[in-house]
Design a protein that fits this description.
The strands form four sheets. Strands 3-4-5-10-11-12-13-14 form an eight-stranded parallel barrel, surrounded by five helices. A two-stranded antiparallel sheet has the order 1-2. Strand 7 and strand 8 form a beta hairpin. It contains ten helices and 14 strands. With 366 residues, the chain is α/β, with parallel strands linked by helices. The N and C termini lie far apart (39 Å). It binds P-hydroxybenzoic acid. The site of P-hydroxybenzoic acid has 5 residues, from loops.
Amino acid sequence: MNISVAKVRAAGEAYENLFSPYRLGDLELKNRMVLAPMTRSRALEGNVPNPLAETYYAQRASAGLIITEATQVSPQGVGYIRTPGIHSDAQIAGWKKITDAVHKAGGKIFLQLWHVGRISHPDFHGGELPVAPSAINPAIEVYTAKGPAKTVTPRALETSEIPGVVEQFRKGAENAKAAGFDGVEIHGANGYLLDQFTRDGTNKRTDAYGGSVENRARFPLEVTDAVVGVWGKERVGYRMSPNSLFNSMSDSDPVTTFSYLAEQLGKRGIGYLHAVDPLSDGANRISPLLRGIFKGTYIVNGGFDADSAEDALERKEADLVAFGVPFLANPDLPVRYRKKARLNVPDQNTFYQGEEKGYTDYPALV
Ligand code: PHB
């Protein structure tokens, strides 16, 4: 079956799955649409969320669930300019206003907990090296306050430092609770720190955190256990991108690697597994396999529209579908999909940085 060709539904034909409510643990989601986590690079001095984010997220509260942009758990976890954190009092206070605004608008919101690992630069760390499982340069370009810069060879974390990094995530989870979130999503995707530990292209360690798939999954699972310790299992999600090559990632056997991780996350009974698995990957998609392994709530993301999402739900490939760019450009995406209304066109020039333009000024349907 060619799953990239969605059945197109006629006007008046309802999306029965997409707009049915869903019970995520003890949370009642009003539909199956999730706002995918998206970096928007508008944080202020001290990586404090921009007050405009109150409007941005509240505008999108008709999603069944909002997942925030990736948010650093510590200064060590920073690798991009103007991305928010959840490690200072000012950041927690900024996020509290955002969660209040979303709740007032009837939405539910999870914070995405992030550590970039090697996708960083000494400019972010007072000249010190970024940290990673192994000293392997991703050889890409990043942007620091001084402009574009080539990445460097990171420093491999000492075994004795790893509990401290787990603690950064635990503390971030605790801070997210103080900021009024409904839960947290652990960022295990897209070539950042947890993914760097998971895949063998970036993890060449010879201690208990490298080598076998069990060892490579150890750090991500320790982070998960620490975060579950704060929130309880149902309010914790985990995002992975098993096929993605973004940020110079590779793995010699992604099916085995991610099947093991999905199985272990499933054993822990976490709230959901969120797979970035683009429809455009066709027969190479891993997510249908992982869906069979992880028995809890399953979210897919990657190039879905209303028709392809409805199909994925209908064939039970997922319970929820996350939408990125379409939701960025259409604050009222659920009602537009429901009515099969015209969509706003996303403006790539305003995806990152700037203020209101391309952020809070996309019109809703009148
Ligand atoms: C980015 O800022 O480019 C970015 C951040 C988080 C992701 C992917 C990309 O997961």
